[in-house]
Amino acid sequence: MAPKKGSKQQSKQASRAPSGASTPAVRAEPVKLAPAAAGINFGQSFSSVAVINKEGLADCIANDDGERQIASALSFNGIEEYSGVPARVQLVRNAQNTILNFRNLLGKTYDEVKSVKQPYNSAPIVDANGVPAFTVEIDGKPTTLTAHECAVRYLTVLLSYATDFLGRPITHAVLSVPAEFTPAQTKALTAAAEEAKIKVLQTVTESAAALAAYAQTVLDEEDKVPSIDRNSVVLDIGGSSTTVSVVAVRDGLFVPLATVTDSNLGGEAFDAKLMEWFGKEFTKKTKVPLEASNHRALMKLRLQVEVTKKSLSASNSASCSVESLAEGMDFHGSINRMRFDLLSSAIYSKIIAKVEEALEKAKLDVLQIQEVVLVGGTTRIPALTNKLYGFFNEDNTTITARLDSDEVVARGTALQAQSLLSADNLALINRLSTETSVLSPSALSAPIGIVIGEDFHALVEANTPLPTRRIIEFPISSSSGSQLLLSFSEGEESVKVEAPPPKPAKKAGWFGGKKDEDEDEDEEDEEEEVRTLVAKPTKALADLVVDVDSKAAKKGLKVKVTIVVVEGGKGTVTAVQTVEGAKVAQATF
């Protein structure tokens, strides 16, 4: 029997020179592949992984089931181990061997979390030598897995998806962490990743990752280019929690101003409203009550309403169908978006209240926010976006979700990983600490700007990290004369509130006669007060007298102002006309 040709034998034959070739084969140098980097968004409910594709773009990858949002869940059935959505499906019949919500247990002691109740009758938290753990049955034997071991298993699975997608090992990664994570939790997450064979370059907050994704994304022509200095709100609605972060974006630097988190407000709150609605519909149609003790039926319904909720984000109505929901009775129902919004109105109000709370904590008015970045699939609900537009000033604030809100954090971490690996100094990468913390440089307490007439125009915004430099060019009038006086000052922003103009008095009766007593007495809604953001100078810093060539001014030349501010608020300002040989004016403050 002829031996089988192995892969090595085939590759030798394929590499042979063609018969009759006169040129000897040249040994090719091995191709050195660039380090492969990944960005990992390890969420409490769902996770995602992004890599840099062949086009150099951050791409969120799918697992074997085609899912880009991978449920943060593990389940065991006999010798089989499941992760992602297949693990969540096990909640219907195998809840006691299914592990959920283990990320937030990292870095905590059992005493800190012993009162936490796991959802959906999944494996409860137990004490394993003072650390939180879960006891499940694996291959017929009770096995205790700590939260750390669960994270290692799950991160190993995520890493395998990225490796399979790229076709080569992942050498480095950047991980996102919630803003509320303590240093101990961040360290524990990094340790779990390292044990899963993930070389962690850095950890970044989820809000910073989302902002980084937008900062490094090429805009479409119709997109409005954001200012390099702006105040941003990152609204992150996860499966079980909502986090609102207020961040001062200053020329590529992200300065956290305030963070508010509600651990009981998330996408699952909307699921609960749908479950309540469809549960009543099922009972109305079948006369079969959906008891709270019927875990299997409730879990089947919950898994289906998650799909219904996603459908309502894209269409005006959606259906919900479950075979053999309870007592062998099938269920099919539908709901329109208007009904869903009525059911969810209280949840919308709670989310807006969290945004208000974050702004108050940051000591900013809604008029001082230029950008709102949406994170999480729940933010795609149209009514929520409309509520946000109603809360913010539509003329002043851009609410953006150009990138997939489910993927934006993972993309941001992948771009950050790529940026770090692209650094010329590879030794710097090797010295990077995996315990990277948020830098806390001193920041400018009040804006510094130029005074024109009675108006103040900020050149360096408040909350800008120091030291900093700004260069601004502005046109000058040909009638400015031979010299131009520039005044620089600190300033402050405030909100000017004006009452709406009075409405003209109505004549008696709609048609000039006496008003009929039966006419509708309801008055039109009163107009809202007019709120305007104004800035005014508060403390004079420096005056500059700039020599001006009026002939050059007629040609459209400008004055270039350079302002440098160091720690303590001290600085230097220079101004010069953009013409060869112009005299530079300088002052310190």
From TrEMBL:
Q: Which GO terms describe its molecular function?
A: ATP binding; ATP-dependent protein folding chaperone
Check the record and name the InterPro entries matching this protein: ATPase_NBD (IPR043129), Heat_shock_70_CS (IPR018181), Hsp_70_fam (IPR013126)
- Cited Pfam families: HSP70
**Any one of the GO CC terms:** nucleus
Q: Which UniProt keywords apply?
A: ATP-binding, Nucleotide-binding
Composition bias (Low complexity) maps to 1-19
Q: Where is this region: Disordered?
A: 1-26, 493-527
Q: Which SUPFAM superfamilies match?
A: Actin-like ATPase domain
> Bias category Acidic residues: which stretches?
517-527
The domain of life is Eukaryota
Q: What is this protein called?
A: Hsp70 protein-domain-containing protein
Supply the source organism for this entry.
Leucosporidium creatinivorum
Classification lineage: Eukaryota, Fungi, Dikarya, Basidiomycota, Pucciniomycotina
